[in-house]
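This section describes the prediction task in plain terms. A model, or a person checking by hand, is given the sequence of a single protein chain and must write out its three-dimensional structure as a string of tokens. No templates, partner chains or ligands are provided. The sample shown here is typical of the held-out split.
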Amino acid sequence: MGGKIYTPLGAWYHATKHALEGWSDCLRLETKPFNIQVVVIEPGGVKTEFGDVTGKQLQKYYDNSAYQIQMDPFLKMMESSNVMDNATEPIVLARVFVEAVNAKKPKRRYVKGAMAKPLMFIRRWLGDGVYDFMISRAFG
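The expected answer:
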């Protein structure tokens, strides 16, 4: 879902996910004549070390950064012990992959995981302004 939503300090990440979404959608049409099906798995928050790794990388550039005011809430959130408590266990997403691979007629998209559906709903149906406001409140 990183290609449909965005967060501060995540431009590099969201750009790659947006590119993968577009590539996958085009590839699905291009490979259809060969009976090759392309699906997109759009996970929400997953219990991984992503937050720790990202936080440590940001820390390298923290001192004298113009982005300190944005980094502070992000780093605080990443250091919080309960951030990953609500994240999805990887096995849940593994089952989605198995479902997609074994389906005769797979869905084009599988949305699963913590906060995936609510965030995508807000962005799509309530608009960019509401999403921007909500994310700004969460990160600042």
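For orientation: Strands lie at 40-43, 109-112.
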